[in-house]
Design a protein that fits this description.
Chain lengths: 347, 347
């Protein structure tokens, strides 16, 4: 049996059929009917990129991060395995990361200058190019699900601030109390700088810390892809700053023709570089693979304009990329080829 | 004198010098030192695109629009002529359009569902890739100038809502009263639909009306380019909807390497298409001219995803493009080749 038919070895009945029908097999080699192709599917997630210094994290904390990443990965992957959509897989994986206190999104969001938690999120469906995004919301447990509701229940893409909160309430969203988002460590981060003009990207801390943004990209069994990104912003941020995460094209993008991308890093540079769409354009207009394009953007184009961070990407064939130009990026992937990996540092 | 040196005819002293120095001239033909090249510079502005039906506008109104466009054009162009920067030219031109009651930006902004005026704007410097954007602000006379202040006086790109208002106040911005933004015609537009769930893009009205967004792109004598876009949103819009105008890459983009772009149209589609950056990518990655790239995006790619509207674009050589796939687009341009045009409809 040729390379394309290797998977038939697991299906004895079909294999026998083809062993006795070389001519038909040859036809399949040339025409490759979709129905007989084992479609590769995959999920990639991230929990932020930054100056992760190996020595500053205890083995216990490292383990806690890896457990949280693994749980989010397995929950999202189970959806793909059960013929679910890429959209459902990325939403579920991000929901799980939002519910963890370890990552700067949802429950784990950092404190703003006002002592509140302002969150942003975006989701995009590569099949339809539909997208939903939300910014500057407070008290919402799962911003990524609100972004999806904006995509599916309004004619808009992007809602922000008080207006977005009114929309959430009109759908029956209930608000979590400030206690839900309270975290001693993040509170101390904020106390240390709140009376200064400083703000900090959570992931740019030189000490042990909780990192930036979370995100997921997936390719399902039908070859549809999707991307989702959610963030709690920057410690001590003021003035309603909007980062790249909720911006379609900057922090989040998906298109079946090319790739699904979720970014994490110094948001202002990712906005100016229109980073997520740049990966897509390099694939569409220059014929690069998802891996080549993602690397070109993160290791060259973003660096050239002074940005640091990383991204995760997947194409409609289930191929993945996870480049970052920082010391580390919380990341994990699982594919139907039974490959799985959970990592933090550059190896 | 050859084509490259035609401009020397206006400078008798230099012409005499070169007439007596054919060898030196030949060198210049090959090496073309920048200092001796007549750099083409240009300004393009728009006041929105949409279903402008010729019969529905009176000659008087048409004239009023053309006068307003001409004034904005001349004010911006004068800056370029006097060795000013592309950034100053686009800000000045957009300020002028914002101050006119005829266009849906600044003073002429439409009513939201709450009866307020929520405005968005973005500006980008093609030389540095610096950008500033603002969304969901009220009472600010010139949102584009606030966007520029965000670019120049913060480390952020994008501020929105109440936070952006606090930033404006910290800089000493004063707020206009609601009367400043009041307009009987726009009030009636709103009254007609305010109790429905409908909202409308100002430019999508089938009757005589004031149209969408305003914007400007410029190339200055140094070959630096810039883009600016400002809008008053959609009549009866709710929930803090953010359109494409303030989104770098979607409604506004500038990069000396490629082009400066300002878009107007059905914002949600322009966000999903990452339209402004798409023009840039077609130039950078496919080698298209600004005219080819702009036309490809508006007449093909945006149409394919169901979007309608147009854009204005300029490259660092001063070449311009103004494609639109609607019945009309308020637009005007002036170049140092003494070309000037002010138009509304497709000819």
């Amino acid at each position: 049996m040729g390379g394309h038919f290797g998977f038939f070895r697991r299906i004895p009945k079909l294999q026998n059929f083809f062993n006795g029908a070389k001519l038909i097999e040859l036809q399949f080699v040339f025409f490759r009917p979709k129905i007989f192709q084992m479609k590769k599917y995959s999920l990639v997630i991230h929990g932020g990129a930054g100056t992760l210094v190996k020595g500053l994290m205890t083995p216990e904390k490292e383990e806690a991060y890896k457990i949280a990443l693994n749980e989010a990965l397995e929950k999202g992957y189970a959806i793909l395995e059960n013929n679910g959509s890429a959209m459902d897989a990325v939403e579920t994986a991000v929901n799980h990361l939002e519910d963890s206190p370890l990552f700067n999104a949802g429950k784990g969001s950092v404190f703003t200058n006002d002592g509140t938690h302002e969150m942003d999120a975006a989701i995009m469906d590569g099949k339809t190019l539909d997208a939903g995004a939300v910014s500057l919301i407070t008290g919402i447990k799962n911003p990524i699900s609100l972004a999806r509701d904006i995509m599916e229940k309004t004619e808009h893409v992007f809602l922000a601030g008080e207006g977005a909160m009114r929309f959430a309430k009109s759908l029956g969203y209930t608000l979590e109390t400030p206690e839900y988002f309270y975290d001693e460590h993040r509170y101390q981060q904020w106390q240390n700088i709140k009376d200064s003009d400083k703000f900090q990207l959570d992931h740019s801390m030189k000490k042990e810390g909780k990192f930036g943004t979370v995100g997921a990209v997936a390719c399902d069994k039908k070859g549809n892809i999707a991307a989702a990104t959610s963030t709690g912003g920057m410690t001590n941020k003021r003035w309603g700053r909007v980062g790249d995460s909720p911006m379609v094209g900057a922090g989040t993008y998906a298109n079946n023709k090319t790739c699904a991308v979720s970014c994490t890093g110094s948001g202002e540079y990712f906005i100016r570089g229109v980073v997520a769409y740049d990966v897509s354009c390099l694939m569409e207009y220059k014929g690069m693979s998802v891996e080549e394009a993602a690397s070109e953007v993160i290791n060259k184009r973003v660096l050239e304009i002074g940005g640091d961070g990383g991204l995760i990407a997947v194409d409609a064939d289930g191929n993945i990329a996870m480049p970052f130009n920082t010391e580390g990026m919380y990341r994990a992937f699982k594919t139907s080829e039974e490959k799985k990996e959970i990592s933090i540092y550059r190896d």
